[in-house]
Design a protein that fits this description.
The complex is a heterodimer of chains A (about 250) and B (about 250). Chain A is an alpha/beta fold. In chain A, about 40% of the residues lie in helices and about 25% in strands. Chain B is built from eight helices and no strands.
């Protein structure tokens, strides 16, 4: 479980996060949603340690990483896997080398053991026989799956996904969402997904946190979110007149 | 003025972090050898062509002037080309060439990694990114640039010999008499000091410019250009300081 308490983050004079608190449960897909500029990415980056919050606490199973020394924090980071918006695969390495990199850097396994583990992870994301390909040879969806394989290769306790569906067609997005959900449940990970894709919210949103102008505006499940009838969250869910019209028709 | 000190402080901090203890030394060795290969083998053809012709043109220039004066024996040209290549031309011209080729390459590589979140991906894994991405590049440059400079000296001297023989300025025996006459190993020491310093300057300045990029493609281009310009300026200044102190 991950808890964030009263997180504040300022860039220059602009206060991006104005005191966000939320709890993200293990074995569930926890979604952070919100409009562009609402503070989703900053929240996620603060949680994984890429940004330092100006105020507040971040607790990983009770361990406060905001007060940890660099070496302690490095140990916590080894329990974190992350899928980046642009996948962030290493261009000069093959798929196998990309997935194997954390094992090469942080374990004493033999090469055969590492390759076996890589093949298990690539198999889990349905990417067998791509070991020797380079990221440039893969489609967007395949790159995302390699990103997931790399994120889970060290058996992380916490999985963070930044806009996992950006740039993907709706069908591939569903495949990626389902994969993340299956892996979360299978390994009982605490998964935090940053998205503005309502299909993801409805499909895998075990818990949803809606950020608006740097504050937590709403928190609930994907079932509860459809009961919203007004306010900023309603405008976010039914962003277009077309969707609002569809909802009205469905009600009558 | 404050900005200059801030930038210098940031540069020193990054170097300090790059010098920290590696998580797994074998991975760092592999990366260092990969970088050494890229810098060394990748730059060898350019260095070879430029140094050969620099040596050749030096010989032709001096032969032209000596023939006009008719006071100095032509075998001296071998000595002048050797001294010029070792003390000045090979280290400085090679370094300026490497600043253009290797410096821009390093800055744009790290800049692209920064923009495409690859550096963030390393950080999340728990990798000390300055140590893993910058340390091996600096180590490789310090190791490889002196080797390239030694090769440049050899090819420059051979270029001078080839040009003189083709133009019939001197015989092979005369030229190599000059090359071996009054050889002073202290000159080689100065050359190596310069090569090590220039290798450090090219790699560290370029790494700093690439690692600290913010923005997008335009900023990567700017950082690569700045890496070349700043490295080149620092090289010529350090070249003067080394010559002033050691000669």
């Amino acid at each position: 479980m991950i808890e964030i308490k009263d997180i504040k983050k300022k860039f220059g004079d602009y206060l991006v996060l104005k005191g966000v608190s939320a709890t993200f449960e293990s074995g569930k897909c926890n979604l952070i949603i919100g409009k562009s500029g609402s503070g989703k990415t900053v929240t996620l980056k603060c949680m994984v340690g890429l940004l330092e919050p100006d105020e507040g606490y971040i607790l990983f199973d009770g361990r406060n990483i905001t007060e940890m020394a660099f070496t302690e924090r490095k140990e916590v980071r080894k329990e974190i896997g992350m899928l980046f918006q642009g996948t962030a695969l290493f261009d000069s390495l093959t798929v196998e080398e990309n997935v194997r990199f954390p094992l090469d850097m942080f374990t004493t396994k033999t090469l055969a053991e590492k390759i076996e583990r890589v093949n298990v992870c690539l198999g889990r994301v349905n990417l067998e026989n791509t070991n020797k390909k380079f990221p440039g040879d893969l489609s967007g969806g395949m790159k995302k799956r390699v990103g997931i394989a790399r994120a889970i290769v060290m058996n992380p306790k916490y999985l963070f996904c930044d806009e996992p569906n950006s740039g993907l067609d709706p069908k591939t997005s569903i495949v990626i969402d389902q994969l993340i959900q299956e892996i979360t449940q299978e390994f009982n990970m605490t998964t935090v997904i940053n998205t503005h894709d309502m299909n993801s919210v409805m499909g895998i949103g075990d818990k949803v946190v809606f950020l608006h102008q740097g504050l937590k505006y709403w928190e609930g499940t994907n079932k509860e979110i459809m009961k919203i009838t007004e306010g900023e969250l309603f405008d976010f869910i039914f962003a277009s007149d077309f969707l609002k019209d569809l909802r009205r028709r469905a009600q009558y | 003025m404050i900005k200059i000190f801030e930038t210098f402080g940031e540069y020193l901090t990054l170097l300090f972090r790059a010098a920290s203890r590696p998580e797994k030394p074998i991975m760092y060795w592999k990366e260092t050898f990969r970088q050494a290969h890229d810098i060394g083998i990748g730059s060898l053809p350019n260095i070879a062509i430029v140094s050969t012709f620099i040596g050749a043109v030096s010989a032709v220039q001096f032969a032209y002037q000596f023939r006009t004066m008719n006071l100095v024996p032509m075998w001296w040209i071998g000595s002048i080309v050797r001294k010029g290549m070792i003390l000045e031309l090979a280290p400085t011209i090679s370094a300026l060439l490497l600043a253009g080729k290797v410096g821009s390459n390093i800055a744009s590589e790290l800049g692209t990694m920064r923009i495409s979140e690859q550096i963030d991906a390393y950080e999340i894994m728990g990798v000390n990114t300055p140590a893993y991405l910058i340390g091996p590049k600096i180590a490789a440059a310090i190791f490889v640039v002196p080797m390239l400079v030694v090769i440049a000296v050899f090819l420059g001297i051979m270029g001078g010999w080839g040009a003189g023989i083709m133009a019939n300025f001197y015989t092979t025996a005369e030229y190599f008499r000059g090359v071996t006459d009054a050889f002073n190993s202290y000159d080689v020491f100065i050359m190596l000091v310069k090569a090590v310093l220039f290798g450090f300057i090219i790699s560290s300045v370029s790494c700093y410019k690439g690692y600290t990029v913010h923005g997008g493609a335009v900023e990567i281009g700017k950082s690569a250009t700045q890496a070349v310009v700043y490295s080149s300026i620092i090289i010529v200044i350090v070249n003067f300081i080394v010559a002033f102190i050691l000669l």
